[in-house]
Amino acid sequence: MSEDAMHGMNVTIRIHRFTPKAEPDRARRHSSSPFGGKARGGSPFGSSPSRRRIRGKHFTQDYAIIAQPGQTVLDCLLDIKRNIDPTLAFRYSCGHGICGSDAVSINGTPTLLCTAKIEDYAKSESSQNGDASAMANKGFRLTESAENAVNNNISSTNSRNSNGSDNAGESNGSLTNQSSPSSLAVIEIAPLPGFPVLRDLIVDIDQMMNQIKKLEPYLKADGKLATTKDGKIDMFEYLQKPEELKRYELLSNCISCGVCEGSCPVYAGGEAFIGPAALIAASRFINDSRDTATDERLDAIATSDGITACQSVRACSRECPRGIDVGEEMWQLTERVKNRQA
Amino acid sequence: MSPEQVEDIYDAVIIGAGAAGLSAALGILRSDEVKGMKAEGHDPKLLVISKLQALRSHTGSAEGGIAASLGNIEHDDWRWHYYDTVKGGDWLSDQDAVKILAQYAPQTVVNLERSGVAFSRTEDGHIAQRKFGGHTKDYGKAPVRRAAYAADRIGHQILYALWQQCIGAGVQFAEEWYVTDLVLNDAKDKACGVVAFDTHTGKTHAIAARNVLMATGGAGRLFHTTSNSWDLTGDGMALALKAGLQLEDSEFVQFHPTGLAHTGILLSEASRGEGGILRNADGEAFMARYAPEHKDLAARDVVSRSIVAEVDAGRGVADPKDPNGPKDCVWLDMTGIDKAHMQEVLPQVVETIHDYAGLDPSKDWVAVKPTAHYTMGGIPITTEGQVYHWQDGKRHIVDSLYAAGECSCVSVHGANRLGGNSLLDACLFGTRAGEAMAQRMANEENDTGNADEQSSDAQNQSATQLAADKRKESIKTLLASSKDDNVTAETSDSDRNAAASSEQPASKDDSSSLESTTESNTDAAKDNPYQLLADLGTTMEHAVAVRCDADSIAKAQQTITDELLPRAKALRTHSETTAFNQELTAIWEVNNLIELAQAMLNASAARHESRGAFARTDFPQRDDKHFLTHSMADANGNIGWQPVHIVDMPPKSRAY
């Protein structure tokens, strides 16, 4: 373990935030209260926010903290919530990569907050300049101009504190906003690409879930019971050999986090595409020996916005937290649909 | 997902979308009664409300297995499972309930398989089974392979299969809605519905219902070190307390022996089932001293206490990540397991150790410590899932209110749960509760149109509406005194980044008149529910984790009354935007946890014995003469006692 492990490192967590505008009926409720005067939302345009574009304020905010290299980014955000800014909004639940709720973009890479480690995303200036392997690392490399921007942001954070208008960093000794430039590292966190932003790092995943549901992601088996040679009921469960299980087991581990979708230039790019997550869910059943609806399932994905829309970029494979080779799976589906038509 | 519109009245509302809630939904829809209703053109209105998106439920984190005497690998018998569960629970289990659990376990597991669960398989295609702590053959003679598993992701598989079946059946969800109130009638003998806060829109809804099921899961976040997700805040249990109901056996909390040090993340019991061995600082495989027969596969509470005893005797080790920290861990040695086999059957364990400890368990010993894992107690229910109130030596059923899963207590786990029995409990009694609700719906349907039924609906609607109106006022208070430095900060930040931002910043006048209306108490303004949650966790951990005594309990009670409770009441949000105001939900959660902590401490103080997972150092012996009985704690500090149902097995000593 490196020297840093014992000391912690100064890290600036830069977050792309968004505060939705209050809805008008809330303003009405407030008008009867003594605090009604401060309520925003008298706007006549706020009444029917579109699904894709919610009105509100976009801004970035920097939080200067001391972090252990082995800490997860989620740990750091929870520290920020506890000690600096309880208003910061992001989804999280299990904290160890199983629930799939905390997909975001870190330094431009879609991934989970709870599996991303500080050491992988924050590189101090010296190690960046000296270490060629930093190139291979998915960590964010600062350009000179970005560095300046960082320093500007830090100083503005400090000036805000000295005005006493923000409690950042004041409430806990382990947090600081006095970052020394020589060990400065920035981790930039934004909402998952390709999904409408609802607040801060929280995005609307309804579209993805609807796409998954559209492909009827549930076992359609024949309902028959296994029998012995003389026709007696032998076993109530469906039998499945280990090698049959292997064909879809990994696919069944998908946690619907949306990382593959945020990585896909077609999906996140806004093209009409049902997306890799829905196709993985479909493939899970296509490859399940118990399922009897294979033909219907292949029909359902052989559409212009289905598997046909996949451009085989394979960016979807790179960050899957369950280790599913999504791109290869997409390719297999493409082949399968093609061969069937031939 | 949110419902397009909220119905005037629901036939059934289910709170929670984990294994218990989803099993109940399927139990309703697959019942003959509801199939009959549907055939007659009456589609029951059903809503599943969850504070998380359904697929994020903590059921998904369960790793090891689900117990059932399928006998797929070696001969097994449900009677042995029955015995093991009663013995594991240190004879505090209600034996009528355990009998149902053991008898219907195989059917439950087979139904899960037929719902799509990708169970691991034997060579001939049957559901594979593995050994699990406390599960034995021939009444304790030797370990038996009883836990059906799916590698080490059984929870994920079950959660997904149940959700998938619900999607297939067209179940409607209200996701990321937080239930703030359970509404009962004035006589407290009937549920009217719930109040739910839609975190997306910030709207508060009155949800009137003819049947309500609570399936909100456990409360591991009471403790600092826990395997539970951040959302396991005992909401359902606290709602029951606040509604005037009781909790049964709330003092019994299971600490899983092998939490990955300093994260609390669980390393499945399967890691020991497959051959992992616990070792102390001297490298000694110490479990052989504490449980000569079953060693590392003794029941969880036995292993947890053994670890703590080793640590107390100075044979603990420090977490290598914090070498100068307390020596409160022991080693988990998995190096004896064949590497390929380990990857095959314990991929999740290997991954967790690699990702969160940076170690390779095929080569390295791993530091572990007990982590808060499961609440054996909860909302008291009958074997049909009906919630009841214990009074005057009798169970008084709360009509139309049901509960299932970890938030409930049918008392199958008694004083200590066996591994593999929690998913079973949730799925089996969840399904039974659903079936009971379906039956009640069918009976009600026969009454539809009569005056009684209509007036009952109207009563439910007005009661829930009243509660919702009150809740709206309270939300206003929580939001209205927001200390808005944050808004100021946001606005100035927004200005600073205006060039890069695609939207113009909103008007800045929103905080102009604020200072005068805000409380001047800056400490209160700085406090937040996340800090309070951490402080509560530390308090509870010191007081009652793994063991306790009168002093430790009294101290925690004092801290809560003097410090934590006043802080909880003073909490206000730091943002006034209602949409996705996580701090608002966190304030409710921490208040719920404190409510629950008080009941738990009261029950702990009243039980003057040690039994199962509950260990009082000042009363180290089990005392069947006085305490073969369930504690029934309410929100006012009263403790009632309900005798244990002993059917087939009189208490014996519990030696492993």
List keywords for this structure.
heterodimer; A: 342 residues; alpha+beta; two-stranded antiparallel ribbon; 13 helices; 33% helix; disordered N terminus; B: 656 residues; alpha/beta; four-stranded antiparallel beta sheet
Structural class of chain B: alpha/beta
Helix content estimate of chain B: 25-40%
Gyration radius of chain A, rounded = 25 Å
Order of helices and strands of chain A: HEHEHEEHHHEEEHEEHHHHHH
Dominant shape of chain B: globular
Helix content of chain A: 25-40%
Inertia-based shape of chain A: elongated
| Average pLDDT level of chain B | 91
Radius of gyration of chain B: 25 Å
Average predicted confidence as pLDDT of chain A: 78
What does this entry look like structurally?
- The complex is a heterodimer of chains A (342) and B (656).
- Chain A has 342 residues and is α+β, with helices and mostly antiparallel strands.
- Chain A has helices at 4-7, 24-31, 73-83, 118-121, 125-130, 144-162, 206-214, 242-249, 259-263, 276-286, 294-301, 315-318, 326-341; strands at 9-20, 56-67, 103-106, 109-112, 186-191, 197-199, 202-203, 226-227, 233-235.
- In chain A, helix 7 (206-214) packs parallel to helix 10 (276-286) and helix 10 packs across helix 13.
- The longest helix of chain A has 19 residues, at 144-162.
- In chain B, 39% of the residues lie in helices and 17% in strands.
- In chain B, 63% of the residues are buried.
- The chains are: A alpha+beta (342), B alpha/beta (656).
- At the A-B interface, strand 1, helix 2, strand 2, helix 3 and helix 7 of A face helix 4, helix 5, helix 11, helix 13 and helix 14 of B.
